[in-house]
Amino acid sequence: MSTTQLTHSALRTLVPHEDIPPLTLGKTTRASSFASSTTSTSSIYSRAADDLIDRFATHQPQTPIHLWSGGNVRLGNMDLTLTTHDAELLMHAMKGDERFDFVKLIFLDEDREEWKISFMRSQVSFISAPSSVFEF
Questions:
Q1: How many angstroms separate the CA atoms of 96 and 92, rounded?
Q2: CA proximity to 115, closest of 63, 49, 71
Q3: pTM score, two decimals?
Q4: Over the Cα atoms of the chain, what is R_g?
Q5: Cβ neighbours of residue 127 closer than 8 Å, sequence gap 6 or more
């Protein structure tokens, strides 16, 4: 790889002097910025309603689950985004699943097309049958 050394005069020809803003020494101009990044592994999992429900069911009982018609999902303190179609499929699947308790449904517009539905992870426990049931 070849490198070219630029001299001060060569730099002057690359950037015209009038394009360089004047420096004001002694004056303090403060600028601040903030950047945040998080990593997410949610994209490697299926977003099909049945798969999501099974993953949601692994959370502790009483975990709140909020689902918006626009596709936003909040599970406890975690957020997930779905398509609007997938959000509707998930809502219908959760309504029929005993592992989740319906909490409330709020319509966000007069046409009742925009909604938010809330569920709670239920405290379903599976009771084992007495051994006498299986005796022949």
A1: 7
A2: 71
A3: 0.56
A4: 29
A5: none
The DSSP line for 74-93 is: EETTEEEE--HHHHHHHHHH
DSSP letter at 115? Answer: E
Within the chain, strands assigned E span: 64-68, 72-75, 78-81, 100-107, 115-121
Q: Smallest Cα–Cα separation from 81: which of 71, 90, 91, 89?
A: 71
Residue 82 contacts residue 70 (beta carbons within 8 Å): no
Per-residue pLDDT tens listing for the chain (136 residues): 555 555 555 545 554 545 555 544 445 555 555 555 454 545 555 667 767 888 888 888 888 999 999 999 998 888 888 888 888 888 888 888 999 899 999 999 999 989 999 999 888 655 444 444 444 3
Nearest CA among 21, 94, 86 for reference residue 47: 86
**Residue whose tokens read 């502790």:** 60
